[in-house]
Amino acid sequence: MAPDDDEAVAAAIAGELRLLDPAVRRRPARVADLLHPDFLEFGASGRRWSRPDIIEEMAAEQHPDGQQAVAEVCDLAGTRLAEDVVLVTYVSQSASRRCHRSSVWRRTPAGWRVFFHQGTIIPPG
Question: Among residues 14, 17, 41, 64, which is most buried (max CB within 10 A)?
């Protein structure tokens, strides 16, 4: 892998981790900075999320104790698909479920932005 590839993958992974940070998620402007204008998500719930929908949803996420939900991440990996496209995959674990996650990140003039995300629930057992 060329050094450029490593930098692209590292930038996409860093962006993905920022999107999982509760301090970022509760601030719509910070989330918007990481989402491509044409962002689309197929959530683990089966719902299709637009960019405005997911920005609003992230800002509203709360635990019953008033704190924002935090997901644990494992098996995090990135693969360059094209010069300006990186696929990030991982498993997220929250109190209630585990999910396979994948995100497609695109380099834009404004920097790396997530273009597409999908979550798939991992059945227990």
Answer: 41
